[in-house]
Fold these 3 entries.
Entry 1:
Amino acid sequence: MKQIDTGITSKVWAVDNNGETFSLGSDQKWKKMNFRLTHVSAGGSGVWGVDTNNNVFRRVGGGNWKRIPGLKLKQIDSGPQGIVLGVTKSNQVYCRSGNKWKIINRRLKYISCGSTLGSTGCWGISPGNRVYYREEVTRKNCAGTSWVTIDGRMKQIEVGGNGDVYAVDSDGKLYVREGVSSSNLYGSGWKFLRGASSVTTGWSGQYLLDNGIVYRLSGDEGLLRTSEGDLLPLDTSCKASACIQACFLAGDMRANDQQGLTAFHTLFMREHNRIAKILRNLNRHWDGEKIFQETRKIIGAIIQKIVYVDYLPILLGPGALPRYSGHLDNVNPGIINAFTLAYRLGHSMIRSKFDLLNPNFDPIAPAVNLRFLFFNSSNINTYGIEPLLFGLAGNVSEKVDTHLTTEITEHLFERGNSHGENLAALNIQRTRDHGLPGYNEYRKLCKLGDAKTFEDTSSEIQDRENRRILKELYNNDPGLVELWVAGIAETPLPGAVVGPTLRCVVGEQFKRARDGDRYFYENEGIFTPRQVQEIRKTSLSRLYCDNLKDIVSIQRNAFKSSIKQPRPSCGEIAGLSLCAWKECLTGEPHFNPNTRKCVCRCSEKTKDCPNKWTDASGYSALPFSIYSERGRGYKPSRFVDLNGDGLLDFVYHILTPKKSFKGAYLNDPTLKKFVHKPEFDPPVALATEKSSDLGVRFVDLNGDEKADLVYGRLTNKDERVKGAYINTGSGWKLSPEYIPPRLIVSDDDGDLGVRFVELNGDGMVDFVFYRYISEKNQPKGAFINTGNGWKAAPQFTPPYPIASDYDHDNDYDYDYDYEDQSVRFVDLNGDGRMDIVYRQWISSDRVEKGAYINDGHTWVWSPQFIPPIHTDNKGAKFVDLNADGKVDLVYHTRISSKKSRKGAYMNNGYRWIWKSQYTPPFPIADEKNGDYGARFADVNGDGLPDMVWNRPGDKGGAINTGCEWKLDDAFSPPYSIASSKGKDLGARFVDLDGDGAVDMIRSLEQKNKSKKKGAKLACVSAGNGNVGV
C-alpha cells in the first residue's frame, strides 16, 4: 500500500501504488473498491478521496463515488462533525463549510483534523516540515481562529476521533504526541515509537505503513482510554442535547443513562488499566495487544465470578443454580425471550434518591433524586465516581414488589419541564412487543401448577391485596397477566429477593449462559488451575478497594448493605494475585513475600523411570535395513503411519540394477512387532544404491491422518517422473489431482526447493517452492491443498530461496553457492501454522537473515524472530524445549577437541531469550564430519524432549527437567547413532508401543552385507506423552 487512513468506523482505507482503492474490514481482509484514487480519507464526515487529476470525490450510497465539483485538491481529510479540509497542489489550505470551500491562511502540504478531549483541532505540516495546530475549529467555523507553532519537524501527521496524535518524520520514525489534555490541546512533546513511512489513527486503532506493508499499532500498555480524573473518555460524537454536560464513551451506549451505570463502567475501566499495568511489569515481553486481550479476558472472568458467586445467591437464594460441571455443547447460551422481562425485576429495587457518601460512608452533599441523574454527568465531574459508589454500597435497595418509585413511573428521562416516561408501562408493553405468553404458562414451565384463578396463586402471591388488584384488572385469569407484573407481585422465597417464578426463569437463563459458554472462567483450559483459584478470591468489594480514591474500609460483600455489615479495612479484603499470569519459559511463577516480587522458580520434576531400556526382540526383526553402507550409502526405508492409529509403521522400496525389493509392515503394539501388509507396499522406489532421495514424500494429503504418497523427480536423462497415491486404508489409489505441481528433486542438482507444509490451518498439507538458479531464473510459488487437489496461492510464495543449484566448477560463482539456503519452516507463535526463518553466511561482510510469521493469509515480516545463529549450521536444531507449542533453538558444534560453539535460545512468543541452562551438553555436529551422534527425543515420556547421544567412544543422556538438562547416563542410547566420521549407523528413535516414551530401533546393513539389528523400549512404565523427534 502507498497510503492508509481510518476513522470512526472499524474499516481501514488504503490506496496502492497503482491507485487502486481498498478497504480493510473487521475480518482483517482487504476488499478492492474498483475505483482509482491517489489519496483517501475516512472520518466523521464520511469517506473522501482525490484522484490523479486532483478531482475530489465522496463515497455515497454505500458503494458509489460522487465527484464534488469546484476545488481541486492533492490531499483531503475527513474530520469530525462534518468538517472536511484539504490541500491544493500549491499547498493552499481549504475547509468545506456547507457546500462551499473556505480558504484558511497558511501554506501546508498535509493536514489532519480530529477530536481531542471534546475539542476539534487540526494539525498541519508545512512544506518545510514544520508542525502547526489550528485552534477553535468547529462545524460552524471550519476555518478556526489561529495557528499555534508546534515543536518538532514532521513529514506527515494524523489525529483520530479518539484524540491520539501520531506523526512521522523525514527519517521514517514514528512519534506519538504526549501531554495532550483539555487544558493543553496540543500537548507537551513527541515520544518516539518505531519506524514507519506514514500513519493513521481512529476508533479502529492505529495503523502504519512500513515499506508498503500495513501494520496495526498496538498501544504500548494495553490500556483503555481515560479522560481527566481517571474517568471514561469523553464522547465527542454525541449530540449536545443528549447529555447535561459531556457524555462519556464506554462499551455500551447506555452508560450515560444514569450516573450509577456510568460509575460502574468507570470502575471496570479502572480495574482493566490497573491489571494491564501489573501484567506489563510481570511480562515485559508482551506487547500492548497481548496485554489488552489478556486483561480483557481476566475482567470477563472477574465479572462472571462476581455475578455467579457473590450476587446471584443473594438475588435467587441458595441452591438456585446447580454446581458447575463444565461446558455443555448442547446448551444454547442465548437469551431466553422471557428473560427480557423477568430480569426487569430490578426496576422494583430502585431507590428514589441516590446518596453521595465519603469513604467513611457519611454524606458529603444532599441525596439526589434519580430524575436528575439521567444523562447528567455533573456529579461525577464534580465529585468523581467515589461518592456515588460509596452511596450504592452503603444503603439498602428497595424490595422486589409492586411498589415502584415515581422517579421511574412519572419522571423517567424527564428533561426540563417535559413529562417523564413510565417504566412500568414500558415493561408491560414490552411483553406484548415480544409476544410473550401470560404468567400462568411460566408457572407450568416452572412446575408451580396451573392456576385457574388468582386464588390458586396464593402460595406464590401471598399478599391478598395484590391478588385482589390482579383479579380485578385481569378478569381473574392468571393467564392474562404479564410475567413481569405477576413476578414482582410474588412473595420472595426464604433467603432470596424474588419469588419462585422469577427465580425459575432468571435462574434458568444464568444457568444456560454459564453452561453453554465455552469461555466460562471455570471451564477447563480457559485459565490454569492456579489462575482460577486467584479469580475466585476477587469480589466487587476488592474492586472498590483497588480503584476508589481514599477508600478506607468496606463490607466483604458489596451486595450486602454496610448498614448491618462490619466494614473491615481493605487490607483484610482478599483479592487475586496476578503473579499467576507471569509467563515463565522455565519453572513456575512464585510470589516472594519478602521482596514482594513475582519470580520464576524452577522446581525440577523428573519422571520416575525404573526401566530405562527394555529389550523388544519382536520389533528388532525388521525385514529390511534402515540404512545400508553399500555403494554410496543409502536409506531404502521409512517410518510412516499407514493406518492412522498414531503408531509408525515400516515401508521400504529399493531399486537395484538387477531387481527391486519392497514391502510394508504395520506396527502391532499387542504383538510388539511389525506385521507384513503387502497391500501397502510402496508403489514407487524410495531409493537406489546411489541415491537415498528419489523425490518420494509421505504426507497426509486428505486430512485422514494416514500417510499418502507423492513423488516428483527429474532424472539424469531429463525424464520427468511424478505422481500421487492416496492411502485408502486398504491400499494405494492413484490420485492425479495431487501430482506435485513442481518436481521435488533432480538427479543432477538434488534438492529443488520444494517443501510440504501446513499453511492455512485447515489440517491438510500444502505445497511451497523457491529455487535459486540465477539472478534472472528463480522459480517460486505456493499451492493450497483444497481437499480435491492443488490451487495456486501466490500470497504464500516463500520470501527467500529454499534451495539453490550448486556450482561444482566454481563455488563462488554467485552468492548462493550451496544447496541449503538455511530456510526452516517452524511454528514460532504456537498457532499451528508453519512460519519461516533463515540466516546464512554469504561473505565476510554479508549475512542474509529474516523471519516471517504466517498469519493464515500471507507471510508477515517479523524481525524479532530472526534467528540469532546461522540456521544452515548442522549443529543447530529447532526443538520445543518447554512444550509450549513454540519452537526453541539450541546449538552445539564441535570445532576441535578444545573449542566449540554452543548455546540455547528460548522463544517466548515475541523474541528469542538466551537460556544458558539449555545449552546442549554434547555436540550435535562436528564442523568437519557433520553428525556427532546426538538426538532430541522424549525418552522418559514426560512430554519434554530429552537429549541422548552415542558415537564410538562416547555416549550419554541428559533429561529435560523443565528447567535445564540433568545428566543421566542410564538413558544412554543402547546403539551407536553415528560413526566417528559422521556416518549414519541405521539407528532411529520411534515411539514403537505408543506409550509416549520414544524407543530406539536399529537395522544396519554393513558393506560386507552383515546385519546389525535391535530394538529397545524406553521407560516401559511411562504414560502418555509427546513423541520425540
Entry 2:
Amino acid sequence: MAVRTGVRMEGTGPQERCPQEWVLSSWHSRYDGQLSVPGRSNLTCRGHPARSEAIGPYLHGLVLYRLFFTLMNLIPFRSMMAVTALGAGLALPLFAQSSSSTSSAATSGHAKKASRMPVYPIPQKMTRSGGSVTVPALKLIGVKDAPTMNALKSMFALSPNGFPVQMSIIKGSKKPAGNIPQKAGAYSLSVTPQGIRMTGYDDEGLFYAAQTLLQLAEKTPSGVTVPQVEVLDWPDVPFRGTIEGFYGLPWGQEGRISQFKFYGKYKMNTYIYGPKDDVFHGFSKRWREPYPADMAKDLKELVKIAKENKVNFVWAVHPGADIHWGEADRKAAVKKFEMMYDLGFRSFAVFFDDIGGEGAKPEGQVEFLNYLNKEFIHKKPDVTPLIVCPTAYAGNGGRYHEVMGEHLDKDIGIMWTGSGIVSDIRTPALKGINKFLQRPAFIWWNFPVTDYVRHALFLGRTYGVDADAMPYMQGFASNPMDKPEASKISLFSVANMTWNAKAYDSDKTWKDSIRILFPGCASAMQTFANHNSDGGPSGHNYRKEESVEIAPVVEQVLDLCRRGAKVADNKAFERLKAEFAKMAQAPDIIRAKANNPAFVAEVEPWLIQFESLGKAGMNSMQMLEATEAGNSSAALNYAMEAACLLAEMQRYSKEISKAINKHVTEVTKKNSPWQTAVKPSELVMAPAVRELLDLGSTPVLSRVSGRAVGRVKPYVSTKLKNGIEKMLDDDPESYFYCKEVQKKGDFFGVDLGVPREIRTVSIVMGRNDSDKDAVNKGQLEVSMDGQSWSPLMPETSGVRVEYQGSGKKGRFVRYRATVQGVPGGKPDVWTAIRDFKVNAPAAPSVLTDAPAFKGAVAETGDTDISLKRIMEVHPLPPRKSLGLQIPAGAAVESASINLKTPDMKWAKLFISMDGKGWTEVPLKADGSAEIGGVVKGVKLVNAGSSPQEVTLEEFKLNLANKGKKDGNSGAAGDFNLATFLSVDLSPERVEIPCTSPRANSAIVLSDGREATVQACGADGRWVPVGSLGKGKKVTTLNLKSVRKPVKAIGLTGKKDTSVNIFEVIWK
C-alpha cells in the first residue's frame, strides 16, 4: 500500500488553490414501519457493546423524518446556525466607531475584533462604510414582494415606526438601473444610520438582497445589529442549482423542501426534477399519464415552496424509452406539459439520456423538441426557455452534436456533462462543444453524485471547474448524492463558485460550509469530511483527493514500519495516533451535536464504519507501542482488537448493503442490488490501518508461532529505490519508477522472507500498457538464497508477466532483463513496475475488446462475480465481446445478463474452462444461462452484423457452493491479521486444510465467537480437539491424538452463526 499523496488533481483558476434514515418519502410509496434486518453483533472485540440499532432503526419510518422537518421549519435559520463569527473570505475593515444615531436605530462599533462579515456566496463588490446599526424593528417601504418580506420577518420585527427599509425593483419600472447590472438576481444593498435600501434588478435580486442582509445581521439583547455596508452584487451564471438526476431512491418531499430553502439562502435559483425512478417523469411508458392525485398534491406544494425561495422548479419528461416520432407523441408531450403547467410549473425540460434505439436519433429529437417549443413554450409568456438533456451528453463533439446545434431552435438549452460522463469542466473543452452546439452549454455536473460508487460519500472540497468557464455556460446544475442533507456541503460550494468564480476559494469555502452548516460539531464534521471524499476505482475513473493534510504523515509512519525502524517516539507517529483518535470520537459528537437528525440518519452507516476504522487505527498504533516496549502480550491483544474491528467492518458492510437494497427495492418497486458496500476512507486511512496491522503484527505472530515470520519486501538490483514500495501496494495506478538507465542483467523482484512454494507470479510493468519503460524481455527466476537461481518459465516479452505452477520453492523471486532496453529499438529506457505479486489470488476483471467497456470494473461478492453497472448507453460492435476473466477459476452455477436491449437474439455466450479455448453455451431469451462448472472466463459476443446499443445493467455469474461448505486456508495461513477466513457455522463441518501435516498443535487466532473443533488424520477419523470459546481470541488445540499426517481441522457450531479465523498456526 502506498499513500496517494499526489491525487490532489489540481485544475486552473482561483478555485483550484492548491454515514441514515433514508428518505423514505418518494413518489412511489410511503413507508411508516421499521425495516426488519439484522443488527450488529455484540462483539467484545469492538471495545464497547455494539449498537443493536445500527441497521434496522436508522431505516425507521417517515413519521420521525417529517417531524424533524416540521420542527426545522419553525426555527429561524439564524437561531439554528449561529454563524456570527464566520467570514466570507473578504479582507474587510473591522467595525468602526460611530456616533450617529436615529430614532429607530443606534450605531456602534462594538463588533468583535477580527470578525468579518459572513456572506456567502461572496458578493462581487462589498465595502464597509461605517460602524454598526442596531435595529429594534423594520418599516418596509416600497415594493411588497412576499418572499422577501417573509425572509426579513424571520429575523426582524416589523413596525410602522421601525427603521426604514426602501425596497424597489428596476426591471419593468421606469427607474434607472444605475450601476446594477441588468442580470436576473442582481441587486444592491445599502445600510446607513438613516436606513436600508434594497434594490433588485428583478424580484429575485430583491430577495437576494434580503438574504445578504440576513447573513450580515446579528441578534443582540437590544435588537438586531447590522454593519453599515454598500453591496453591489450579481451572479456569474444565470441558472445555478441542482438536478435530481441520479439513480436510486429519490429525495422525497421533505428532502426537496429542505433543499429549496437552502437554495434560497445561498442564491441558487434552479432545481431540475428528473429522478430516474419516477415512472410519470419517464423511463417508462407511463410518462404520458397524469400524476395521481396524491403525487400531484405533493408537486403543487413543492412548486409553492420553490417560488417562495425564488427557485425555478424545472419539471423534466423522459420519453425516450418508448418514444414514437409522430404527431401522437408530440401532442401527448404538449398535453403532459399542460398538466404540469396547471400544477404551477413554469419551467420545463426534456431528457433523452441513457437510451438507445429509435429514441436516440438526433433528427427525431430535434423535430420533437422544436414542436414542443413552438406549440407550448412560445405560447406561454410566463414560461422559461426549454432545456434538453441530449443522448450524447458528454464528449467533445460529433455528428449528433452537429445535428442538434444546427437544427434545434437556438433558444433551447442543451445540457453537457463535460468531456467525460463524470469529469471536470475545463474551459477549452467547453468552448469546443459550444461551437458544435452553436450556443453556450447548460452544464450537468456529475458531482457529488455517488450512484456509480455507492460505497462512498463525497464530503470533500468542490473543485474541478475552471473559474474562467463561467461566461461560456448557460447554466450549471450539480447532480448531487441521493442524500439531500449530506449533499449540502458540496452544494454550498457550488452556489459560491457559480455566483462569483473569481473570489471562489475551494478549500476555504468547503471548511466554512462545515462551520456554518454544523456549528455545534464543526471540528468532528471536518474530520469526517476530510476522510470521506474519494469514490475509489470505477468505470468513470473520476478520483478526488482525500485525507490530504494527514497523508504525508501516514507515509512517514508506514515508511518507518516498512524499514523495521522504531516509530513510537516519532512526532509523525503521535500525530497519526491523534488523528485515529479524532476519527473514533467524531461519530458520537456528530450524532449528539449536528442538530440535523436527517443528516445523521443519511450517513449513519458511514459513521458506524468510520468509528470502527478509527478504533482499529488506534489499536494498531498501540500494538506498535507495546511491541517496542517489549510487552508482547499487550501487543497481541491490541493486534487482535484491530483485526476484529476490521473484520466486523466487512460483515457490517455486507449486512447494511443488503438492507439498503431491500428497502430501495420496496420503495421504488424496482430491483436495486447496487449498494454493494459501505466503506469510508478508502484512499489513505483504511489502507493505512490494514498495512499498519500487517507490518506491526509480524513480531507478534513470530512470538506466537515460535518461528520467524517472513515479510514480503522489494528486492532489486538498482541503486535508486525511491518509491519502491509502490510495486507492492496493489494499486494499478501507482508504480515504482527507477530512473536509472536499464542494463542487461538488472532485476526487479521480491524477498518473501521465508522459503515458500511459488504457485503464482503476476508482474505489471510500465507506467501504462503502452509504455516502453519496462523490462521488455526478461527471465522469471526463483532462488532459495539469492545466489543460485532457477527459471520458473521461458523468457517472456511485454509489460505483463503471468506464471502459474507448483512444486518449486524459494525465498526470492525476480524478473531479470535479458536484453537492454527495447529489443531492436530504443536501448536507453528506465523501468516502471506497477505490481509484483507472488501467490496472490488473481482477481476477476473485465474481458472485452469493445473500447467503450475497457474501463468496466469487476467485483466479487459472497455469492457472485459481476461487472459494476454502467448506466450510460454504449455501442457493442459486431464480433466484439464483453465478459469476465477469472484467472483463479470459479465454480459458476449460472449467468444473469441484462443489457437493456429489446431482445438477445444477436448475442452468443461462451465459457472457457482453461482461459484459452471457448465453448458456446445456450443463452436464454431473458439473458440467463446455465453453466455448472469451474470456468476461467465468460464472454458475450455480438454475433450479429450491426452494432448493439447496450446498457450494462447486469452481468453476473452466480457462484455454486454458496453456503461455504469448504474453508480456504489461504487467509488463515498468510500471517497477516488484516485478512481472515469467515466461516458460516452449522452442524455441517467446515474444513480448513492443514499446511503442516506433522503438527502436534494448532494455535487459532479468532474473533472470540464460539465453535467446536475437530481434526482429521491419516485414518480419516474426525476427533474432538477443543473449542473456540466466547470472548477468547487465542486458542491452542492439542493435535497429539490425531494420527499423522494431519489433514485438516473442522469447525461446527450453531446454525446461522459465524466465526472469523485470522490465523491457524501449526506447530
Entry 3:
Amino acid sequence: MANTTKHTSTSKTSGSCSTNEITRFTPKVDAIELSTAKQWAIAASASSEYTTTRYSANQVIGAPDTGLITGGDQQEIDKAWAEARSKINESNTLTLTYSEPVYIKDIVARETWNAGAISKVEVMKDGVFVTVYTKTDAGETGGTMSGVQVGKVSDTKISLTHALDYLSNKIRLTVGNNANEYNEIDAVQLISAPVFADILNKIYEDSGYAGNTPDDDKTTVEQLSVVVKGVNYYLEDRYQAAIKAKTDFTNPTDSAAQAIMTDEVTTLVTEQSANLSSLYYGQTFFNDDISDMDTSLATNMSFMFYYNEAFNQDIGNWNVGKVVNMNRIFSGAAIFNQDISDWDVSKVVDMSSMFSCTTIFNQNIGDWDVGKVVNMNSMFTNTVTFNRNIGNWNVGKVTDMSAMFYSAESFNQDIGDWDVSKVVNMSSIFNRATAFNQDIGNWNVNSVVDMGWMFSNATAFNQNIGRWNVDEVTNMNAMFHYAITFNQDIGGWNIGNVTNTSLMFYQAKVFNQDIGNWNVSKVTNMSYMFFGAHVFNQDIGSWDVSKVTDMRGVFFNATAFNQDIGGWNVDKVENMSSMFSSAIVFNQNISNWNVNEVTNMRGMFYCAKAFNQDIGDWDVGKVTDMSYMLSNATAFNQDIGSWNVGEVTDMSWMFFGITAFNQNIGDWNVSKVTDMNWMFSQAKTFNQDIGNWDVSKVTDVSYMFSDATVFNQNIGNWNVGEVTDMWHMLSYTDTFNQDIGNWDVSKVADMEEMLYYAKAFNQDIGNWNIKNLEAANNMLNYTAFSTENYDLLLAGWSDVNVTDNEGIKTGVSFGANNTKYTNATARQALLDKNWTITDNGLLNDSNNNGVEDVFVGNNAKNTIDKSGHREAITLHGLGDNDTLIGSNHADTLYGGAGDDTLTGNAGADTFVYSYQNAGHDIIKDFNIGEGDKINLSYLMDGYQEDKVLSDYLTLLSNSKNQAVLHISANGNSNVAVVITNIDDVDGLSNDLNSDATRNDSTAITLENIAYSEELLNNLVDNGYIVLI
C-alpha cells in the first residue's frame, strides 16, 4: 500500500459548502513521458542583416552549423546572423518561427559573437507580439539569463519565470545596443514546458476552480486517472486544484461518498506504487518532509527529483534495496546535499546522470556497492563541489563512463585502481574536471572505443598514460582539447583504428611529444588537430593521411610548427580552410601536393607570416572559397597567375596585408566571384594589371583596395553593375588615379569614404548613375579632386535620372572637403533633395587673380546685374524666377529652377541647362554672331547622334514670331512638344493645343531670334545648341 500525505483544503460540492480532507498522493502512477519539446527555427527574418547571403537571417534556421564550440573563443562566421553594418549602433530584431506551437518555457541562443546581447523576448499571442522578458541595466524581468561567457561562443539561455499559459510558435528577439560592435547568432532553440500542463489546464478550467461555470460533462474516471498519474509534477499554484475537480463517481454530497471517491483514487495509486520515476519531476519549490515515505517496493527512481531546485530533505533512511534504475534521480536538484551513504544500491544498474547539476552535493558515498552498475554516464556532471573518495568502488561491470566527471571541478581523488576493463565509452569523462590530476596510467582501457573529449579542459591533468592499450579506439576527437598542462609521451600508442583526431591537441599549449610513428591511416578528419598547440614541432612527415578529407585548421596557430610534410598524400582532402592560419614559422615545400579535390581554402595561409613556397602549379579548379587565403601572409610572393579559379565565389580578404605580393594574376577567371571586399586592402606592393577581370557577378567591393598604397592600374572597363557596396573601396590608395568614369554604379547604395585619402585621384565621375546611392559620407575627402571635375560631378549627379525618369535618393551625405565648386546650380539641385554636402565652398575667383567672377543667388527671386564687370563671369540664379544680366565678356549663365530672364550682353555667352524642371526661360539677346550657345548636354543625357532629334527638341514660333525651343529631356516622342504656357504660343496648330497630357519640363524663348523651319537644325549643326 502506497504511503500518502494528507492536507486539509476547502472543497465545494453542489448543494453544500463544507471542509473536507483531500488526499494528496505522493507516489505517482504509471509515469507519463513528459519530455520537453525542443525545436529549431524553420523560418527567420530580421530588421537588418549584414547581407542577404552572408550573415543573413536565414543562417539562424535549423541547428547550429558554424562549427564553433561552446566555450571557445568567439569568431566571426558567416553562417550566423549579424545586423547590417549601418545598424550596429542600435538594437535589431530577429523574428523566428517554429513548426509546433508550444507552451514556451526557455529560449537558448547560440551566440557566436558578443554573447549576452539579447535584451528583450517577445512571443506572438493572438497575432500580436507580447513582451515576456526584458533585460536592462536595472535588472531582468520575466525570467533570468544564464550561460553567457564573455568573449566566448555561448549557449545563452533565457528561462522564463513561468511557462507561458498559451500556445505559440513565433518569437522575436531584440539584440544589441548602441555599442559599436556586431552581434552574431547561429541558431535559437525553443524549449516548451512539459505538454502535460495542457491536460491539467483543461481539467482545471472544466472543474469550476478557474472561476468559471463547471463543465456539464464533468471530469471522467479516465481524466481523474490521468490527473493522479501526473499531479505530483504540478503540486504548486493552480495545478493542485485539478485533483479537486468534480467527478461523475456519483457526484458525492456527503462524507461517505467522498470516501468512496478517495478509495477509487487510492486504488489507482496502489496498483503501481513501485514506479516512482519522475515523481517530483520539475516541482521547482517542492521541499516537503518525505523521510517516512515507504519506498520498499520501488524499483525505478529515475528522474524522481529531476530539477527540484528547492529540495533538500533527509531521505537517508529510505529503503532503496530493490531499486534498479536511479538515472537522473537528483539531476538538477541544485541544493540537495543529504547523507545517503547508507543507501543499499546493490541492485542498481543505471546511475547515469544521477547527481548531474547537484551543485553542492558532497557526501561520502565511497562505501556504496555499485557492483551491478552498467551505466555511469554523466553521473557527476556539474557536481562542482563533489570531492569524495570513491576509489574503492567496484566498477567492473560499467560499460559507459562518458562525461562521468564532466565539470566536476573539485574532484581529484585516486581512482587509479578502478577496473575499467569493460568500459567502451570514456568520451568527456574528465572534460572540464579542472582539478583532476591522478595517476590512472594502469587503467585497462582495452575495450574503450570512444575517447573523444576525454581530457578536454582538464587543465591540471599531466599523468603518464603512455602504456595504455588504445587499439580499439576509433574516436580521439578533442581528446586533449585545452589540456593546457599535458605533455606526456604517448608516441607508442597504436591508433590504427582511429578515424577522427579533430581538435585532438586543440590549445594543448605545452604538448610536444614525438608522435611521428602513429598509424593514422584510417583517420578521415584532422580538423583543428594542432590548433593552438604552441610548442608542438615534431616530425610527422611520414604520416599516412591518404584517407583524410578534412584538414581545416589542422595547424591553426601552431606557432612553433615547421616540419617537412611535403610528402603527405592529400589526394582526398576537400577542406583546407585555415590549415596553416597563424602558423607563423611554417615555410615548407608543399608544392607537390595534389589539392584537386579541395573546395575550401578559406584562410589557409592567414597570418602564415613566414610562408613563401611555390604553389603555383596547384590544381585549385574545385575551390569555391579563397577568402582570407593569403591574408597577412607577409612574406608570400609566388607566381600563382596560372591558377584556375573559375569556381571561386568568395575572394574577400584574400590578399589583405600581404605586403610582399606583386604577381601577375591578370588572367584569372573571376567570373563567378561575388565577394571581393578587402581583397587587396593593405597589399602595399601590389600593382598588377587586373583590368580585364570579369567582375560582373561581384556585389561587394568594400575596402577592396583600401591602403593598397601603390596600386594604380586601369580598371575603368570593369563591369560593376551588380555591386551594391563600395564603402572604402579605394581609400588611402596614395597613387590611384585611373579613369573609372564609365562604371555602372546604378546598384551601389554605399560609397561612404570610397576614395577617402586617395591623394592622387582626380577623374571625371560625373556620368555615374547614382540613383540608388544612400551614403557617400567623406567620399572624396582628402583627394586631389579638382573644381572642374567636382562641377562635372555635381552637374551629372543632379540630373542623373533624367533618362530613366527615376529620382535620386534623398537625405544622402556627401563629402569632398578639399574641393571648391563653381556649379552652384547643380549643387543646389542636390541640396533640394535634402543632401548634406561637405566641401571647401564656392570658388568665386576661378582665375585666381583676386577678381570675383562667380555670382550666386540665394534660391529666392533675384536680380543679378553684372553688366559692368571687367571680365567673364558665371551667374547662378538658383531657384525662383530670376533675372540674370551678364557682362560684355564670354559669360556662363545658369537659370536654374523657375521662369528666368537671361541677358548675356556682348561676348560669346553660354546658357547652361542642367535642371530637369528649368521652367520657361527667356533669353533676351541670344546672338549667333557673337558665338552664343545653349548647352543642353547635362539635361539631355539620353540623347545620342543616332537618335531622332525631334523626339527631344522642337522649335516653334510664338505670336511675335520669336523662336521658342521646347525640350523633352527623356526623348519620349509622345511628349516631345510640351507647352508651359499656351497663351504665349498662339501660333501652334490645333493638334498641339489640344494635347492636355503634355507638361514640358523646359521651354526657352529666344526673344531676338526670328523663327524659321530650318532654324533648329542650323543651331544644332553649327554648335549653337550643344546636345552631347
